């Protein structure tokens, strides 16, 4: 999960009061329906789309190709900063002044779907099986899909190959190997064999996969009962905390810019991150550094499941040009478009077929991300996830700092999650 996912999570809670009072709850019971299928005729009219961050800055370049194929359509792109995006969407919904399409952080979908503001994805618009499972799941709320995945992010293990070679170890595949691997890198001079956040903001993204890898989950199959005090979560918390207890990971949260420099200098032997770090490391480390690091799928237990995030596209129920809006979303979901989009934005394709292109298949870094995406997962699309995840972050930090036991932390997490509820 890359910087975009982190920024999306940072502003999730903003505007919650506005959403709660907007009075558009007719789609919150999971019974919402699309207004009908979309034909194959050329798109017409003007389509207004909000896109966040870098996507908003460069989408216009790709949209020109859609306009060439559909001469009677105009795509009007508004770039919205990530830090204000959530609040801006909430305010637009409350005031009834929405664009036709909005990009959404994957963890926002449940919250906004509960307002009834978005139209469910028309049947037959896209083939849901063409997307990575974990990515498509980010669009589904109570069995109904809202929009489509646009681009994806996932986490893999970045590690110093020179330190690993000196230690005589290879990229780990299991938990036991992972712990020993990180320790071995530390013995080669790294202050942290692996850099992990000691709790705090979005640290749940690091510990939740450890529960998923054992078959655990956040909610039971009924989609309503929290299971955050399960044996799988206990094992996940204990294993995560062991890196701090054994001194393998320094109890310091490295912010943007720090992790790259410490990894290049050898102070950090390994860390988990998304694809954007490849270009940062190559730029900052220089050509020679390309031979000193590699990426690998995350080590695991029963599976090697990682976290997945990214960006989705959803059409507002009040769209003034619904037909053309959905046609643009469908076009953005085509493999050839997603390959072209990577050239413009470096966003990874959400459609599996795009990964057969040599751009991804033959790249030693990107190909690993493609493999990891086949075993990646997102949190449940519930309106209250921002509050629940913040509780996990808080209690995990207490554990890594030795302020509470794992049992007490998870008891607190479960109790608070039950008090918060799913918001459904």
Automatic annotation (TrEMBL):
Cross-referenced PROSITE patterns: PROKAR_LIPOPROTEIN (PS51257)
Region Disordered, residue ranges: 401-424
InterPro entries for the chain: Bact_solute-bd_prot1, SBP
Biased composition (Polar residues): 412-424
Top-rank taxon, per record: Bacteria
Keywords: Signal, Transport
Coiled coil: none
Signal peptide boundaries: 1-20
UniProt key word Metal-binding: no
Gene3D superfamilies recorded: Periplasmic binding protein-like II
Annotated family: Belongs to the bacterial solute-binding protein 1 family.
Designated name of the protein: Sugar ABC transporter substrate-binding protein
Organism of this sequence: Agromyces mediolanus (Corynebacterium mediolanum)
Gene behind this protein: lacE
């Amino acid at each position: 999960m890359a910087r975009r996912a982190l920024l999306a999570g940072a502003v999730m809670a903003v505007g919650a009061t506005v959403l709660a009072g907007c009075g558009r709850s007719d789609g919150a019971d999971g019974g919402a329906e699309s207004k009908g299928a979309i034909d194959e005729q050329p798109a017409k009219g003007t389509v207004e789309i909000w896109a966040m961050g870098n996507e908003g800055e460069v989408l216009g370049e790709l949209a020109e190709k859609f306009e060439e194929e559909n001469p009677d359509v105009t795509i009007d792109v508004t770039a919205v900063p990530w830090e204000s995006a959530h609040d801006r969407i909430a305010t637009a919904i409350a005031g009834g002044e929405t664009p036709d399409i909005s990009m959404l952080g994957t963890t926002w979908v449940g919250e906004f779907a509960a307002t009834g503001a978005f139209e469910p994805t028309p049947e037959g618009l896209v083939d849901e099986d063409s997307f990575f499972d974990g990515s498509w799941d980010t669009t589904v709320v109570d069995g109904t899909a809202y929009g489509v995945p646009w681009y994806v992010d996932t986490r893999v293990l970045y590690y110093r190959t020179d330190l690993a070679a000196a230690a005589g170890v290879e990229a780990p595949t299991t938990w036991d190997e992972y712990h020993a691997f990180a320790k071995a890198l530390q013995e080669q001079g790294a202050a942290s064999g692996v850099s992990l956040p000691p709790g705090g903001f979005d640290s749940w993204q690091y510990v939740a996969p450890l529960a998923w890898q054992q078959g655990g989950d956040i909610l039971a199959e009924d989609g309503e009962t929290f299971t955050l005090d399960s044996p799988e979560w206990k094992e996940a918390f204990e294993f995560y905390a062991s890196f701090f207890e054994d001194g393998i990971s320094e109890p310091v949260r490295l912010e943007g810019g720090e992790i790259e420099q410490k990894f290049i200098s050898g102070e950090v032997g390994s860390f988990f991150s998304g694809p954007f770090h490849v270009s940062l490391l190559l730029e900052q480390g220089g050509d020679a550094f390309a031979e000193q690091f590699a990426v690998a799928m995350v080590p695991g237990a029963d599976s090697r499941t990682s976290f997945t995030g990214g960006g989705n596209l959803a059409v507002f129920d009040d769209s003034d040009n619904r037909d053309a809006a959905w046609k643009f979303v469908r076009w953005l979901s085509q493999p050839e478009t997603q390959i072209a989009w990577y050239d413009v934005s470096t966003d990874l394709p959400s459609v599996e077929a795009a990964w057969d292109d040599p751009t991804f298949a033959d790249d030693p870094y990107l190909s690993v991300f493609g493999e990891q995406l086949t075993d990646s997962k997102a949190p449940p699309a519930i309106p209250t996830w921002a509050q629940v995840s913040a509780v996990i972050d808080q209690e995990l930090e207490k554990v890594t700092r030795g302020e509470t036991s794992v049992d007490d932390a998870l008891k607190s997490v479960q109790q608070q999650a039950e008090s918060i509820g799913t918001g459904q």
